[in-house]
Design a protein that fits this description.
Elements: E1 10-18, E2 22-26, E3 33-37, E4 58-69, E5 72-78, H1 95-104, H2 153-180
Parallel strand pairs: 3-5
Antiparallel strand pairs: 1-2, 1-4, 2-3, 4-5
GO molecular function: RNA binding; zinc ion binding
Protein name: Zinc finger CCHC domain-containing protein 17
Subcellular location: Nucleus, Nucleolus
Amino acid sequence: MEALPELYAIFQGEVATVTEYGAFIKIPGCRKQGLVHRTHMSSCRVDKPSEIVDVGDKVWVKLIGKEMKDDKLKLSLSMKVVNQGTGKDLDPNNVSLDQDERKKRTFRDYTSQKITLEAVLNTVCKKCGCKGHFAKECFVQPGGTKYTLIPEEEEEEVTAAEYGRDKKTSAAEDSSKKRKK
């Protein structure tokens, strides 16, 4: 096995090929190449890596990742954490690399899940008149917006049915009053 640089080591390599997603850099002292993804070429957005580097250019890079995939060692490199003029490490504690890694993590989508409240206090607030909390926990301002709990689906159907029934009876009462006059 060839001697590879240590993780987070800085060295100067030569650009072997440039693709639409980054550039492959020859690692000195071995036959391996590492990829500088276009997101790691500059702190600014890079749309075309060919605008940043050309084949044969010497660039300073930092080894930021080693990964075994399908019995092949894949090396990830970064140019944006190294000063291209002097080769000085701009991120000696690897803080920006950790931040980049956190940004890549995917989060679960919870929007489709229904939120249900497990328990509601059987109280009425003396300040706002809403159910489920005490006056000392009430955040409503005088004359401000009042918040109430959202009724369950069954309760909504029952109240809608009752509202419809009330409308029908009031309409019947109105028509009987008109006939009497």
